[in-house]
Design goal:
With 1130 residues, the chain is an alpha+beta fold. The protein is built from 39 helices and 31 strands. 41% of the residues lie in helices and 12% in strands.
């Protein structure tokens, strides 16, 4: 095996030769002219001591950094690869066939498939040549000389390595053979042999792969583990909090990213060494993520955040998922023909020789015990790990296809009779009547081999001689007496025979049908000339041939394109070879694969396709998929594998429902998640520490509890420090209580000072202690004052776990929406309060158990705790405000349907948690609201509010106003006069030509200014009462925009600027009239819930007319001209 490297590969590429290569590949002239334009006239000047030399033309080399350079070089290098590939005197190394056979199988028909060999492989400028013997070296060097002469390439002999394999290990470079002399003339000085006792590894890695024997690979793994430890040590000092997503990303990318290639592509055969190395890397990763204090077990930490973990790197599962990928491809997930698939089939055939199967065995529900426990020299370590990884997956099951899906898969009930007879008999998911619950044990695999030793491996072996019915147990015993045996063996065979009969019952009619001896319409068949044809008609005894179409087959990908070229097939099925295939883009019943319609010629269709412009790789892939609509499920001469779309496995149940992973679409991430789901366990604290807390839950609530806790701990509003503390509280509590402490340290220090002894558990610290109770009572009062929602802090589910009760089933949509909008604020408030209560507990505990005697702790009273909670929540709200402002100003232009500022306003401002002021947000929690001016007696009070519903999906944003008018009597009694609400029209949602449009787009201030306009219109109508009018707004910014501009506070340029000017003019005009004055009043608190709900309902309805829910008539044609109709006091 020669590993070649080219000297200055990209610099030596000749422009003229590259253009000739492009023409030889029949690329479009426009593309060739474009490349020629890029390189023609290019010149270079050398600068020496500040002086420029005369320019000289560039005739070689490609542009550095140009995305076209790599493609140009690969096309030129393909000339060399093709010269090697087509030279018959250069013989490659024979490899197993597609079904794992070492020697070509005897041809069933006239044309045998070609023998399989590995000759050349290339990766950019590196080339690997595999030769069967030294006799192929002189012709290979002659080909290299020819290519170098016409392309100006040169071999870099210092980086060229020659690896001796098999019978050629005795090759002597110093001998007088033609091959040795030719290599010495080239400058090659030595060869390498990686058998035990020789070279352990090659001196250099081959694209990250360590090529060596067991000792060399083991040493490389040890170096990889040491490098991972050094990387972890260098990253320990980073300021990212322990246990955070940032640390997890460092472990996955920085630490594992460097070790991944060496571990994935080579592995020792000694399983203990593999496990030891992976454990060492896992230890380094855990130290990097968690530091010295491992506050979560590795089993819990490696679970995803949605399963109450932190998504920590699980090195063993990470590598298992990577090792499983090539074997999943060999099981049929991909249709490409690759040499490694041949070898996997060969390993299976070698370990289970009596079965006589290769590729088919890979998709059976086996644990592959004979492969995993086989001798070390049987296969490389990475192949053994692949079988071990797939055996750890759940068993495969039959997935019934969706009849409405395109392309439609062929269900197993429609399996052709010939394919059914060739199906493996045991542990076959395609035949299983009941899905397998586990993979076959080693004992069951041994029993399957015992059946195979008696010639029973496929469905045809348990059928009558006519092939129409399944053998009864008595007939099976008569045909295979040694198989049935006596005693417990006989009963075991009887049980397996009954399972076989149940599995084959669904194909009773298929088996009873006569065998098909003619070609069927839609079948792909190879004729005697080797062409692949698709039959367009069904053969009959009266006609010796059937019509067909010639197909184009991509050998590497297995894709099939049905062309428009007509041909004929022999009607007899025995005269051609069947090529099993599946439909990718259309059903098998569709005969016109090129999409040629009536009245349209094939030339017209091809002309239209050639005229299309494929500007992106996705467009090219889509165009190819439209043409190559079928794919083979096995290379020619190999038995077919099942359609991968018909096989799936079920992931175990975690805190979410079990999932399904289809083999055809499975990814590495899904495989990793399957392994993690096997190791999932509910936090033990839920059944021990918090058992009494959760005792009153219904079974449905108890089953949803882990998912609810996961949603709470992963909420985006919780900072990393508080998230970590909440996770510890949920999983196992902290280092406190009788299970973790001894003596007086197990008791709550606060209670000890009061003369009581209470175990210092997480529930007691955060809920039962007097300090915690007082804190949570103040938190509940502050929450109710800000949001209007009442919290029941008497239950530890709310205080300890943060599980706020969901709205009842009878709750209205506005109530549900408001509960959802306040969720971020509650998550933040609960996590911060829980952490600061725990910090105060620690200060009290350390002060009480100090070495120099107990003393009073500082900043541990409820007053100090609440002050710290307020400060931390205010910091987080300020951070969210700055983030939203930055996203709206500096980030990419946000969509009008999903603005970061709209989300911030909806979660923090509209809910009443905070209010906006000139310097930023002001936290309303734990803060007395700014006092509003008292309402005068004997006045008319008009209260206005507005709402903005952000965009959701394809639905644009919506806004509405609401107004309430009441008569203030002399004794403080308020009599309602009118309530009304209506949607707001903007040019963005209703078109610029709509006369009802108030502004260009929806914003919060636009909505509030429209509400003020409605209130001013109502005030103009109420002037006839000759009583003072008070207009209350609930937004400080809106009130400020209605004040006269000054030099220090000029009017801002905003989207609602014109609305504010109109309202200011209207207000000035009303007050300019003699008599009644209109006073503007600001109430920073939330508006009445009923009024807010009216605005939200109007926004959802989108009705631009004013809604009056207190009146039987629901709409008014005019806004305020007909106010007397709606005024009860008129």
């Amino acid at each position: 095996m020669l590993m070649l490297d080219n000297t200055k590969a990209f610099d030596r590429l000749q422009h003229d030769f590259a253009l000739d290569v492009l023409r030889a590949f029949n690329l479009p002239p426009s593309l060739i002219n474009a490349v020629q334009t890029l390189y023609n006239g290019a010149e270079t000047r050398v600068k020496v001591n500040g002086h420029l030399a005369p320019p000289f033309p560039n005739t070689s080399g490609v542009k550095q950094g140009c995305p076209l350079s790599g493609l140009l070089y690969i096309l030129v290098q393909e000339v060399q690869m093709r010269m090697i590939r087509e030279d018959a005197s250069i013989r490659g190394i024979p490899i197993p066939g597609p079904d794992g056979e070492l020697t070509p199988a005897p041809a069933a028909t006239r044309l045998a498939p070609p023998p399989h060999a590995l000759k050349e492989r290339g990766l950019v400028d590196d080339t690997m040549i595999a030769l069967a013997s030294a006799d192929s070296i002189p012709p290979l060097l002659r080909v290299l000389d020819r290519f170098e002469a016409m392309s100006n390439h040169r071999m870099n002999i210092s980086k060229t390595m020659m690896l001796l394999l098999g019978r050629e290990r005795g090759f002597d470079l110093r001998a007088d053979s033609p091959a040795a002399r030719a290599l010495r003339r080239r400058g090659l000085r030595r060869t390498y042999d990686i058998t035990p006792g020789q070279d352990d590894t090659l001196p250099d890695k081959w694209h990250g792969i360590v090529l060596g024997n067991e000792a060399g690979v083991t040493e490389a793994w040890a170096r990889t583990a040491a490098q991972a430890g050094a990387t972890a040590d260098s990253l320990h000092a980073c300021p990212i909090p322990h246990g955070s997503q940032g640390r997890v990303n460092l472990a996955q990318h920085k630490l594992m990213g460097k070790a991944f290639a060496a571990l994935r592509l080579t592995a020792p055969t000694n399983q203990k060494k593999v496990e030891t190395t992976l454990r060492a890397i896992q230890k380094h990763a855990s130290g990097l993520v968690f530091g010295k204090w491992r506050w979560l077990t590795e089993r819990a930490a490696t679970q995803p955040r949605s399963a109450l973990g932190v998504g920590h790197l699980h090195v063993a599962n990470y590598m298992q998922a990577a090792w499983a990928q090539p074997l999943l491809d060999a099981m049929g997930r991909t249709t490409e023909d690759r040499p490694y698939k041949h070898y996997f089939a060969h390993y299976a055939r070698q370990a289970y020789p009596d079965l006589g199967m290769g590729r088919e065995m890979l998709s059976l529900n086996l644990t592959f015990s004979r492969i995993v426990d086989g001798p070390p020299e049987a296969m490389p370590g990475e192949a053994r790990q692949a079988f071990r990884a797939v055996a750890a997956l759940p068993p495969l099951r039959y997935a019934a296809p969706d009849p409405d899906a395109e392309p439609a898969c062929q269900p197993r009930e429609d399996l052709p009779r010939e394919d059914l007879l060739a199906q493996p008999l045991l542990h076959n998911p395609i035949l299983d009547a009941q899905p397998a619950q586990r993979r076959a044990t080693p004992a069951e695999e041994q029993e399957m081999l015992r059946w195979a030793s008696h010639g029973v491996t496929r469905v045809r072996h348990v059928l009558h001689d006519t092939g129409r019915t399944v053998l009864t147990f008595a007939e099976l015993r008569a045909r295979y007496p040694a198989l049935v045996g006596t005693g417990h063996v006989r009963e075991q065979v009887r049980t397996m025979h009954e399972a076989v009969r149940r599995n084959l019952a669904r194909w009773r009619d298929v088996l009873a049908a006569p065998p098909c001896v003619h070609a069927q319409a839609g079948q792909f068949r190879h004729d005697a000339d080797g062409r692949l044809l698709r039959a367009t008609g069904t053969g009959t005894p009266a006609c010796p041939s059937v019509s067909a179409r010639v197909c184009q087959l991509e050998a590497q990908s297995g894709l099939i394109r049905v062309t428009s070229e007509e041909a004929t097939l022999p009607a007899a099925a025995a005269d051609t070879d069947l090529q099993p295939a599946i439909a990718l883009q259309c059903s098998d019943s569709e005969s016109d694969d090129d999409g040629v319609t009536d009245g349209q010629t094939v030339a017209d269709k091809e002309g239209e396709t050639c005229g299309q412009c494929y500007a992106t790789p996705a467009a090219v892939a889509e165009a190819k998929a439209r043409r190559f609509r079928h794919a083979t499920v096995a290379p020619r001469g190999a038995p077919p594998t099942p359609d991968p779309r018909l096989l799936e496995w079920h992931t175990p149940k975690t805190n979410s429902a079990p999932g399904k992973v289809n083999l055809a679409y499975s990814t590495t991430k899904q495989v990793r998640q399957t392994y993690l789901a096997h190791e999932y366990a509910e936090p033990r604290s839920l059944s021990t520490r918090y058992a009494t807390t959760l005792a009153d839950l219904t079974p449905q609530q108890r089953s949803r509890l882990p998912a609810d806790l996961a949603a709470a701990t992963t909420h985006w509003a919780i900072p990393e420090v508080e998230r970590r503390h909440l996770l510890i509280t949920v999983h196992h509590g902290h280092l406190q209580g009788g299970d973790k402490c001894k003596g007086d340290h197990r008791w709550c220090a606060t209670c000890l000072k009061a003369g009581d002894k209470h175990e210092d558990t997480a529930t007691h610290t955060a809920h039962e202690c007097t300090v915690a109770r007082e804190v949570w009572a103040r938190v509940a009062n502050a929450w109710e004052d800000a949001t209007g929602e009442r919290l029941d802090v008497s239950h530890p589910r709310l205080t300890v776990l943060g599980l706020r009760p969901a709205p009842p089933q009878t709750a209205t949509h506005p109530d549900r929406a408001r509960h959802k909008a306040t969720e971020p604020a509650w998550r933040l408030l609960h996590a911060v309060a829980l952490l600061h209560i725990y910090k105060a507990r620690n200060r009290v505990h350390m002060a009480h158990h100090a070495k120099h005697g107990p003393h009073d702790a500082r900043r541990a009273t409820p007053k100090h705790i609440l002050r710290a909670i307020k400060r931390r929540v205010a910091e987080c709200v300020q951070y969210e405000h700055d983030k939203a402002r930055h996203a709206s100003r500096e980030g990419p232009k946000p969509s009008k349907h999903a603005s970061a500022w709209t989300k911030f306003h909806g979660h923090w401002i509209a809910t009443g948690v905070a209010s906006l002021r000139k310097g930023g947000p002001r936290l309303n929690l734990f803060s007395p609201r700014p006092p509003a001016e008292p309402l005068p007696a004997n006045a008319v009070h008009i209260r206005v509010t507005a709402t903005l519903c952000p965009a959701k999906g394809k639905q644009p944003p919506r806004a509405a106003w609401a107004i309430a008018v009441e008569d203030l009597g002399g004794g403080g009694h308020a009599a309602p006069l009118m309530t009304a609400a209506g949607a707001i029209a903007t040019a963005a949602t209703h078109g610029p030509g709509n006369p009802a449009c108030q502004a260009a787009r929806h914003t919060w201030q636009t909505a509030h200014q429209v509400a003020v306009a409605k209130g001013l219109a109502s005030a103009a109508q109420h002037r006839r009462r000759r009583r003072p009018i008070v207009l209350t707004v609930h937004n400080v910014t809106t009130a400020r925009d209605l004040q006269p501009p000054t030099a220090t506070h000029p009017r801002r340029r905003t989207s609602h600027q014109q609305l504010a000017r109109n309202n200011f003019s209207t207000l000035q005009g009303l007050n300019a009239r003699p008599g009644v004055t209109v006073t503007l009043r600001v109430d920073a608190g939330p508006p009445p819930a009923r009024l807010q709900h009216m605005a939200e309902q109007a926004a959802r309805s989108g009705d631009l007319r004013s809604l009056h829910p207190t009146d039987p008539a629901s709409h008014a044609v005019a806004q305020w001209d007909e106010l007397r109709v709606w005024d009860p006091g008129d």
